[in-house]
Amino acid sequence: MALLELFNRQLSAIQIQKYLFLFTRKQDIKAFDFVPYQYGCFSFQANQDIVTLTKNGYITKSENYCQLNQKQSGSYLMALDMFDQATLHDIKDNYGELTQDELICYTYKVFPFYAIKSTIADKLLSPEELQAVEKQKRHFDTPQLFTIGYEGISLEEYVKRLIINDVHILCDVRKNAYSQKYGFSKAILQKACEGVGVKYIHVPQLGIESNKRQDLCSQKDYDILFDEYERTTLKQNHEVLLFVRNLIDSDKRVALTCFEKDPKQCHRSRVAKALLALPNARYTLKLLI
């Protein structure tokens, strides 16, 4: 809102994303994380904040612009600390006269990693600049199984880890693909992944009922639960395990995901163990921590 206030109360959603990105480059602890996306650097959280502010009447959003509605009293900008105020003023002084395309182009040139998923880079950049973007892309042919938990990280950081490791398919092994943490319920997570070229597949058959996860106080409790899981769920759903194995064989780079950061406290570690034990497994395991 302070950004909108500073820029005469009106910016496009793309401009907001780009200005926030440049603003966070100056912060030691970044207010928002960003991921390479269809128009360059993009924050899912900032986008959701705009939606929330619109619903609550602080912003009016049209097809092309976000407009800050009149506040009764006071200034959003003055509510920030002096360092953030100064940084926002620097952003306006240095980039405020750029057109939207010039602003996008600037971020692509200076931060080419964030242009690797762009659908418009070829329209804005020269062949030499496009080559710099291409060098930021990661491509691997080696079959690889990954596991990743989303505990303690943002959706942007999570998706960025998938991109950096050239993950092709994300297999969600939660019984219920729902989370109170923003970005990790099925619909949003699927949209975020597929927006950067990662296919999302929910495999609920390999999940554990939530009531069985109650009252887990020690690693021994987790081990007992997962030992039972190996004897029951994994054996009863062997064909589903083979389905995941076929994904690795066909698409080469597949990640298993659930909530817990520590794989020893998540059943995805046992799914990975079972996949590694299958005959003729030509893939190894990497933890995306």
The shape is globular
The top level CATH class name of the largest domain? Alpha Beta
Helicity level: 40-55%
Mean pLDDT equals: 94
Instruction: Indicate the low-confidence ranges by residue numbers.
Output: none
Strand order of the largest sheet: 8-7-9-6-10
**In terms of structural class, how would the helical and strand content be classed?**
alpha/beta
Number of strands: 10
Notes on the structure:
This protein has twelve helices and ten strands. It is of the alpha/beta class and 289 residues long. It has two domains: 2-134, no CATH class; 144-287, Protein-Tyrosine Phosphatase, Chain A, CATH 3.90.190. Strand 4 and strand 5 form a beta hairpin. Helix 2 runs parallel beside helix 5 (100-110).
Quick description:
The chain has 12 helices and 10 strands. By secondary structure, the protein is an alpha/beta fold. α2 runs parallel beside α5.
